[in-house]
Amino acid sequence: MPPPADIVKVAIEWPGAFPKLMEIDQKKPLSAIIKEVCEGWSLGNHENFALQIADATNFYITEKNRNDIKNGSILRLTTSPYQTAVQLHERIQSSSMDAKLEALKDLANASRDITFAQEFINLDGISLLTQMVESGTDFGDLLSFTLTAFVELMDHGIVSWDTFSVAFIKKIASYVNKSAMDTAVLQRSLAILESMVLNSQDLYHKVAQEITIGQLIPHLQGTDQDIQTYTIAVINALFLKAPEEKRQEMAHILAQKQLRSIILSNVIRSPTPINDEMAHQLYVLQVLTFNLLEDRMMTKMDPQDQAQRDIIFELRRIAFDVECEPNNSGSIEKRKSMYTRDYKKLGFINHVNPAVDFTQIPPGMLALDNMLYFAKHHQDAYIRIVLENSSREDKHECPFGRSSIELTKMLCEILKVGELPSENCHDFHPMFFTHDRSFEEFFCICIQLLNKTWKEMRATSEDFNKVSCVCVF
């Protein structure tokens, strides 16, 4: 006959004693079970004891998680979270460096458990750690384990990030700005700065005053992938939290500092395989970079704006340079007729006023930007596509204007332009780190592939969506 569902059979350890095999009744209060265990080893003051999972985590058993105990689990009787917190609070203030280091190691390990963390925080433990950091007297392993304990405690979300002083922020930033710093200290400092920026708009401004992109770049040029990952995470956090008007400015600085090529050379093309966390940070950077296009994607063309209309004139000029005539040649009607003919060859839907084609959002002005980029940077391919379609039968022409607008819209959907990064996605594309204008270059590749596929399928205008799907997917 199987045991009742509320009874679990476990082994319980106590230092210096043989483990006890015991049946735990999950309906009994945890305090009663701990008292029973203490009495079995003749230990008084049972309220000063607790049970832990006897594995690498050493997590405390509480009323909330006790149902996770399974038959065959190994538990450990140990001091209660409160008693452990009190002891560690005293030990990390020891005058002996060796004793202090061991205490900080124990604190860093214990702080992963939220039950302990709450007790240590209640003793104002976070303030004690920040004071130790601000004092600047600890270095090497002492500082490393201090920062590790701080990170573990803060990760539980119990304490607000807004509570930290400018002095603490400056000290953490100084560890990142130093050219030679202990690897563990640098890693923890980068992690702290990332969390500060992500969790507080006020701290974003303070961190942004202390850290520059130029100071972060050298950390990407080493070989430690963890340091590289945390560095990109800080850049992403600064990018994400920057006011909208500053993101383009920051993107310009990243381009000046050659961030893309540095990542390509030192991370993507590194002999070290890219782990999941690095892949995620590269994906986030990719998304944030593409999101800079959102403003143009959501901007309608103003048919009355001469500067915008000049872009369309430039497309016509590049494609039909030999056919252009000075403005004073011929009648107005003749010139209008000539323009209408050329706009039809360029594949616009509205042959009379193609500006109207770009009033649909998305893709808005982004489609026109792509077309102009293609015309200027891949001029031969652009002219060939336009002229090839000019010489086809109307029903078989692949309209460049319409194709460009629909393709830009499709690429925005595929690359999720304007959407926030997903927390669990690792889908970065190395090709987007091979060029400063990667979106535009991607468009140029796709528009040529679209035209090639159109010819091979002998498609008509009714087949547009079908051809698009074949090309992009």
TrEMBL record:
It holds the Pfam family ELMO_CED12. Residues 307-473 form the ELMO domain. GO terms for cellular component: guanyl-nucleotide exchange factor complex; plasma membrane. InterPro entries: ARM-like (IPR011989), ARM-type_fold (IPR016024), ELMO_ARM (IPR024574), ELMO_dom (IPR006816), ELMO_domain-containing (IPR050868). One of its GO terms (biological process) is cell motility. It comes from the Eukaryota. PANTHER family: ENGULFMENT AND CELL MOTILITY, ENGULFMENT AND CELL MOTILITY PROTEIN 1. This is Engulfment and cell motility 1.
